[in-house]
Design brief:
The chain is mainly α. It has nine helices and three strands. Strands 1-2-3 form a three-stranded antiparallel sheet, with no helix packed on it. Strand 2 and strand 3 form a beta hairpin. The longest helix is centred in the middle third of the chain and has 13 residues.
Length: 172
C-alpha cells in the first residue's frame, strides 16, 4: 500500500466483483424494482447468483483494504468487471453493478461525494477524457437524478433523464 500511494497509482477495487467471488449476493439490488424492472431476464439471473469461487475469503477485508488505501491518499476509481451473463460469472449486471459499486465504496469508508467522484471526475482526470465533469467544452454526458445521492448513495438509482453528448436520449 505504501508503494501504491508513493507512486500515485490509482486502484479500481471492483468491490462488486469481490463480493460475488466471496459468495455475497447484491441483495439490495435484487429487491429493488428500480434495478430489476430494467434488466433483461438473463441479467436478472446473473445478478441472482455469485461467482462463489473464494467463499473462504472475508469480503470485509476487501472493504478494509479500500479504506486503508483511501486513507493513504490513493485515488480510488469505480469499476465492476462486468462482462456477460453466464453461469460462472454471477453477481454482476451491466449498469446495475456500478450502482452497487458506489454503495460498497461508501461501506468501505468513502463519503458519498468521494464515491461519486470515483465514477466521474477521478477516472476522467487519470485518463484525460472529455467526460466526468460538467464544464464548457466537455462532452455533456449526464444522468439526472430525482433525489440527491449526496444524502443517500442509493439515489443514483433514481434516474429521471439521461443525456449523451448534450442531447436527451431517455426520460423515465
Amino acid at each position: 500500500m505504501d508503494a501504491i500511494a508513493q507512486n500515485h497509482v490509482f486502484v479500481t477495487p471492483c468491490l462488486s466483483l469481490n463480493a460475488s467471488l466471496t459468495g455475497n449476493l447484491p441483495t439490495n439490488l435484487l429487491k429493488d424494482q428500480r434495478v430489476m424492472s430494467k434488466l433483461a431476464p438473463e441479467w436478472q439471473e446473473n445478478l441472482a447468483r455469485t461467482f462463489g469461487t473464494a467463499t473462504n475469503m472475508d469480503f470485509q477485508a476487501s472493504l478494509l483494504n479500500v479504506k486503508e488505501l483511501h486513507n493513504r491518499g490513493v485515488a480510488i476509481l469505480a469499476g465492476t468487471d462486468v462482462s456477460q451473463p453466464a453461469p460462472n460469472l454471477g453477481g454482476l449486471a451491466h449498469g446495475a453493478s456500478l450502482h452497487h459499486e458506489l454503495q460498497l465504496l461508501t461501506q468501505a469508508g468513502l463519503t458519498n461525494t468521494e464515491a461519486l467522484l470515483a465514477a466521474t471526475k477521478t477516472p476522467a482526470d487519470y485518463f484525460a477524457t472529455d467526460r466526468g465533469t460538467i464544464a464548457s467544452g466537455k462532452r455533456a454526458d449526464l444522468v439526472l437524478l430525482k433525489n440527491d445521492p449526496l444524502e443517500d448513495i442509493q439515489a443514483t438509482l433514481d434516474i429521471q433523464q439521461i443525456w449523451i453528448a448534450g442531447k436527451a436520449v431517455m426520460s423515465i
